Amino acid sequence: MRYNKGELLSLARQPAEKAAEILMRVPKKGSVLKKRLVKLVVNFLFYFRTDEAEPIGALLLEHCRITKEEENVFSISFLEDPERKYCFECASEEQCQEWIEALKRASYEFMRRSLIFYRNEIQKMTGKDPLEQYGISEEARFQL
Amino acid sequence: MKLNERSLAFYATCNSPADNSGFLYKRGERHTAYHRRWFVLKGNMLFYFEERESREPVGVIVLEGCNVELCESAEEFTFAIRFGGAKSRTYVLAAETQAAMESWVKSLSRASFDYMRLMVRELEKQLEEMRWGMAGGYGGSQGPVGSWKPKALGPEQLPERLPALPAILPKENSCAVWYNVPGADRPSDTSGCSGHDSEENPRPPPVPPRRRASSSEVGSARAATVESSPTFYQLHEQYGRQVAELRQEWLERR
């Protein structure tokens, strides 16, 4: 699949919502945990070899499942193949929970559901559509 | 750089609703010929397929940070997706009608994750302002947002405030949002009668009873538009806590 690599690399260099050195294992036969710089930017999770400027890879975090595994460990898997897991071993249980929470909220789809929820709540309370002033009430992406 | 292509393809073709879709002509990178492709916009990802029935996209354009502009071109209804970088590529697309072009330009220019996040925060802020305004008339008219929100509201703090969203949205969720508001967890700040405001959470002291009565007229006017019982429950809890606080304070002072 072709993609605009330049823009994705540029995204990877932007300030991250969350970044840390975490042990990571990709779902490939025989792969082991390796120390990676893991960086969350919008709905992408980039992972770098420490001290390298360009990421080894990027995961688009849509339609994914974040699962707490054993202690300090969480995994990311995708809907089309839930057994194929990217595993992350954190330094502490606290760090693990923080990443799980952050990643669960890192998808565009989650943002969209939040927006629809708030829009609905405000509409219930005021009888007015809060998106109307922005002229975007009819946009497909904001519909229930 | 590896991309989880299989998951991307799944996202592109699964039955989650697209934000826009349709045929567009895409100008080639080197050759200026246009190729008709089936485009599907989901979130901040613009996928394009060779045919509408194709099982996998030919490619995807990550739209984060892009600008969408109309084009001066011999072709009708052209527009461009531009990025900021030095070596970045500009995608020139052409729609088949004026209406289609306008629809695409609109949806593409609002497709970024950042934009969506901004809207969510804006509405979240509005909702919480409204709830505070209703609860005790605490300078509701002045918009106390700045006074009770934690100062640096980074994305890390956002998780505390956003409720978990079930498929059906029960009223209990609005309670959850309410109790997750930092102010609600630190009721000691509300007994500002003693004149002490904590530094990290400066909030105006509770309005004295007389003024509260008049502002509660406003409050009750607003409350009249809300019949939902959690709102009453929230008010009940809030006032109950204040009373308990004041009573405690008085007992300690004796």
Automatic annotation (TrEMBL), chain A:
Domain PH per the UniProt entry, residue ranges: 15-108
GO biological process: endosome organization; receptor recycling; retrograde transport, endosome to Golgi
Domain of life: Eukaryota
GO cellular component: cytosol; early endosome; recycling endosome; trans-Golgi network
SUPFAM superfamilies noted in UniProt: PH domain-like
Protein name as annotated: Pleckstrin homology domain-containing family J member 1
Protein species of origin: Bucco capensis (collared puffbird)
Gene behind this protein: Plekhj1
UniProtKB/TrEMBL annotation, chain B:
UniProt cross-references to InterPro entries, sorted A to Z: Boi1/Boi2-like, PH-like_dom_sf, PH_domain
Entry keyword Phosphoprotein: yes
GO CC, one annotated term: clathrin-coated vesicle
Cellular compartment(s): Early endosome; Recycling endosome; Golgi apparatus, trans-Golgi network; Cytoplasmic vesicle, Clathrin-coated vesicle
BP terms from Gene Ontology: endosome organization; receptor recycling; retrograde transport, endosome to Golgi
Keyword Phosphoprotein: yes
Residue stretches making up the PH domain: 17-113
Location of the region described as Disordered in the Swiss-Prot/TrEMBL record: 186-233
Pfam families, per the entry: PH
PROSITE patterns (UniProt xref): PH_DOMAIN
Record SMART domains: PH
UniProt keyword terms in alphabetical order: Cytoplasmic vesicle, Endosome, Golgi apparatus, Phosphoprotein
Domain of life, per lineage: Eukaryota
Function: Plays a role in endocytic trafficking. Required for receptor recycling from endosomes, both to the trans-Golgi network and the plasma membrane.
Family: Belongs to the sesquipedalian family.
Stated name of the protein: Sesquipedalian
Species of provenance: Bucco capensis (collared puffbird)
Gene: Pheta1
